[in-house]
Amino acid sequence: MSRAIQAVRGMNDLLPGALGHWQRVERCAAAVLKAYGYREIRLPLVEKTELYVRSIGQVTDIVEKEMYTFEDRNGDSLSLRPEGTAGCVRAGVENGLLHNQVQRLWYAGPMFRHERPQRGRYRQFHQIGVEAFGMPAADLDAELILMSARLWRELGIGDVVLQINSLGTAACRAAYRGTLVAYLEGHRAVLDEDSLRRLHTNPLRILDSKNPALQGVIERAPSLVDHLDPESAAHFARLRSLLDEAGVAYVFNPRLVRGLDYYTRTVFEWVSGALGAQATVCAGGRYDGLVEQLGGRATPAAGFALGMERLVELLAQGQVQAACGEPQAYMVLLGEEAQRRGMVLAERLRDRGVSVECDAAGGSLKSQLRRADRSGAAWALLLGDAELSAGLVSIKRLRDHGAQEQEQIPESSLAEVLASRLAP
Ligand code: HAM
Q1: 77 φ, ψ to 5°?
Q2: Cα 287 to ligand 1 centre (Å)
Q3: Which residues line ligand 1 (CB under 6 A)?
Q4: Do the beta carbons of residue 10 and residue 122 sit within 8 Å?
Q5: Of 49, 87, 349, 353, which sits with the fewest C-beta atoms within 10 Å of its C-beta?
């Protein structure tokens, strides 16, 4: 036997038994997004590398060290998407969706970053992302936050904390930059290699450093929020008052800078205390400059993305069992004639919306019942010679219901009886 090939490190198979929570989040998110008027968009997994350099920023962890970049056969530099915002803006500009229009869009799918894999951090991970265009007021920022808060409520997730900050405009950041560099120069001795390199290229990134040795210096650094231009300050004040009015609790975190360069004004993260080091389940903010930066006409925009793996881990911790596509009924078919009849009967049940798996391996009653149990179905439907000649089907509840009696139901009313017993 030759050696088995394994998956790429940090890229995981999602097996049928684990998908219950995934499907629940997907269903719930689709319903919540629809309720706010967001429409789905599907985008390529691969884009020109330049798109990410121009949007996420040259001096960021993602672009400097985490992208899966390769040359295709024409010699063009392409990258697997590390996130969805840049591709969404590119598609919006290219397809004329943005100019003078309001758009509310969402997407879902895998993203790729060559990070060091650990709990909650993978090289292929999945996001549900939301991007809204053409709305400059803080009301949109509030809508995005309220929408994510509604999703947590619907999913039964209670222990996530909202952190917010304002990064102002590019102009006020440029002014603040001078103050920050002067301060950091004064603490040069403490800075690590990454921070020294960024001191004159992207000093704000230093505030995002996770290096414990830098935390003291970062905490005492001057705050960007004290250097906001009047419009940005008013925008932030309005967002806070809208959140207060809607009863959404938040923590103002002046150190929240995010790892991507395109943000302006509002940034936010939802953080859980139950996930260890990779605690952010959802993050986003406003990016009023990005559309123009990518060749479109200036268009205000904001959005967020949630990390599916982290959200699913939170749900799994909640011990809530989610159905993962198990059939509702399993047909135990004893003999050739029962197999023929069973197939017809199963079709009739599916017409009534009951999901049915038919035994296809045959064998004794005992071995088929064992497979029925393993399928996760709630009911076993038994068809043998006795049932066939009497026009009946025996039905039996499976699993946690003790030694349940078998019942016999006329074949003609089986669909109705089962549908009523399966009703929630
Ligand atoms: P981000 O903060 O890079 O933002 O990612 C958003 C979320 O994706 C994170 O909060 C986290 O839950 C999840 N995530 C990120 N990297 C990984 C990883 N390696 N493994 C597992 N989960 C991960 C963005 O991507 C922006 N595009 C969000 C946005 C949309 N801003 C505006 N619109």
Answers
A1: -85, 115
A2: 15
A3: 83-85, 113, 115, 120-122, 125, 127, 129, 131, 259, 280-285, 303-305, 307, 309-310
A4: yes
A5: 353
